[in-house]
Amino acid sequence: MPANLTLDALKAAVASGEIDTVAACLVDMQGRLMGKRFHAQHFLDSAFDETHCCNYLLATDMEMNTVPGYRATSWAAGYGDYVMKPDLATLRRLPWVPGTALVMCDVLDHHTHEPVPHAPRSILKKQVERARAMGFEPMMATELEFFLFEESFSSLFDSGYRQMTAMARHNVDYSIWGTSRDEPIMRDIRCKLWDAGIPIECSKGEADAGQEEVNARYSDAMDTADMHSIIKLGVKQIAQEHGASVTFMAKYDHRRAGSSSHVHQSLWRDGKPAFRDEADAHGMSQVMKHYMAGQLAHAADITYFLAPYVNSYKRFVVGMFAPTKAVWSLDNRTAGFRVCGADTKAVRVECRIGGADLNPYLACAALLAAGLDGIEKEMALEPETTGDIYQAGAVREIPKTLGEAAAALRGSALLRAAFGDEVVEHYAHAAEWEIAEHNRVVTDWERARGFDRA
Ligand code: ADP
Known about the structure:
L-glutamine synthetase; seven-stranded mixed sheet; glutamine synthetase activity; Ubiquitin-like (UB roll); Gln_synth_cat_dom; 33% helix; binds adenosine-5'-diphosphate; 13 helices; 2 domains
């Protein structure tokens, strides 16, 4: 479903007073929407063409620190400007915010107007163009899980996240009754996202107290990544309207389930699924098998883009529906890569490694880079791993720490070829900074363990 506002429709809505504000947004390294809210008339008069932002937006950490050591920008380089170029095909109403529309922007060099290579939308665009040059259209869906809390964002922040009350008090997986206290918020989320041009399929309770999942219909990879970012914004803003809060952390509490963002993927050719072969035992084409073989071969290289923080790795535990092994299996939720819809035209691969904290543009781009390499090299798909894969012996593991994933990223010939050296070094630096920051900090766990016993 395309975004629901054309420039002409925006002009009419501004003239009638229906819309007075346009949020122009880029996507930062963390997958967040950053930008400016324009008076709608000024957007129509000039900003629809381009606007500007400080180039530190693609060189900060989660806390907006000016991280040293990036080649792309620094204090020494003066933290100059980027061009934000609105992609008018993404213009849409934000029905949960009065009088407001939103548009996604590409990030361009201020002087050359060339795409900034480490901008998440540029990275994904490059891989989509590569797939198209091979004759394929990548179709994807990124499911999103999160936890709902009774307290507001500001009260939890002020209390240091110590008194958190999950909206539901027990596991509400698929429970219609168990999620009924969430429903005023979830109904608003489904309906208002739908009215923003995001075709929500469903929401459902998930496997722990207060956990929910929301699914949008699959679309082309860029549209899916844009929808993912806007869904996160909408879920947060709508929860806030209700005086509640949510988290998309991969693992907000080690005693609770983690939150994932599974990525469903298929390639299409001439409007038809290229993953389908009716003659195959499971209806999987050679193209699909090569694509999956590429993702398995490069699983360690791409893990950083599926699990970008120290916390992300705490999700990979046995018996909680998050995978620990990078192998494939038919409809088996213990595998890193699950084949869904076998023997149907919807046959697809679901990568289950990603957490809800992933950046969807980077995750989809990395998965594509690995899968397309498998197709180009006609990689053979290893045999399916079956049964309880948590207990499978010597099979390919998912990296266990951010350090392991960062080292695999830095050393990845695949990603250097697909994304370019400067992009790999930019994100490897982000990972190493995150580790250094984490190493520096004394955690609650250390204090509780050591304070009177050390
Ligand atoms: P699950 O068993 O994971 O709940 P669903 O049937 O709910 O599976 O589908 C999960 C996601 O997969 C949905 O967002 C759906 O739009 C998406 N999906 C369905 N078909 C395809 C396809 N051919 N390619 C990519 N994604 C798809």
